[in-house]
Design goal:
Elements lengths: L7 E5 L2 E5 L6 H16 L10 E3 L11 E2 L2 E2 L1 E3 L1 E4 L2 E4 L5 H21 L5 H12 L15 H16 L9 H8 L4 H17 L12
Helix pairs in contact: 2-3, 2-4
Length: 210
């Protein structure tokens, strides 16, 4: 793609994303036309049925865009590399999906595992929440208390099914297991990132963020 793009073009596997500031209708539409022409020259085509427009910003003029003669549908939420992003750039729908999936996995563990010892159940829960691909990880990207509480309820359930901890409070169960609440884990991650920025451990200019 050797054309001069007015917007930012991103490609990953078979996904193509075009984004830009919509001061005028022309910029994004012209780049869409360039994309379609490029695809035709290379004997490819975009699946127009899967193309969506995600309008961001309070004062967005909500222009309609087209690929050739076909108008593209607008959407309030789209999946980007496995993560749901809505038109307010919040993680709420992703957190709700993660909580539902985690609850289902917990139910499956509870029904299929005869043992309730922490030695048996802890590795399963760690895979559920601590691993980079764990389903509870989206809480680290959420800025809303309601999302944190939704995912926290999953951890409450997980700690309660372990033998010997049933009658303890949530805080006591966490201490027994050596765990942090999701809220504290998020705070710990934020503090680590702040330290990296301020100590020059990241390439980005982090000092201006504080």
């Amino acid at each position: 793609m050797d054309a001069v793009w007015m917007c930012t073009l991103s490609k990953f596997a078979d996904d193509t994303k075009l984004r830009g500031v919509v001061d005028t209708l022309a910029a994004i539409q012209q780049d869409l036309d360039r994309l379609e022409s490029w695809a035709e020259r290379n004997l490819m085509r975009f699946n127009k049925g899967k193309c969506r427009v995600l309008h961001l910003g309070r004062n967005n003029p909500m222009h309609q865009y087209r690929v050739r003669a076909d108008l593209l549908e607008s959407s309030s939420v789209e999946r980007d590399l496995g993560v749901l992003v809505d038109d307010r750039l919040t993680m709420s729908q992703q957190c709700a999906l993660a909580a539902k999936k985690a609850s289902g996995i917990l139910g499956c563990i509870k029904r299929s595992m005869a043992s309730r010892s922490r030695e048996v159940l802890l590795p399963f829960y760690s895979a559920l929440s601590e691993a980079p691909s764990g389903v509870l990880r989206p809480v680290l990207g959420s800025h809303f208390k309601k999302d944190e509480k939704l995912l926290e309820r999953v951890q409450r359930r997980a700690t309660r099914i372990m033998r010997g901890l049933e009658h303890l409070s949530y805080e006591e169960r966490l201490r027994e297991l050596g765990f942090f609440s999701l809220e504290k884990r998020k705070l710990r991650g934020d503090l680590r990132n702040a330290y990296k920025y301020l100590k020059g451990g990241c390439q980005e200019d982090g000092a201006r963020l504080f």
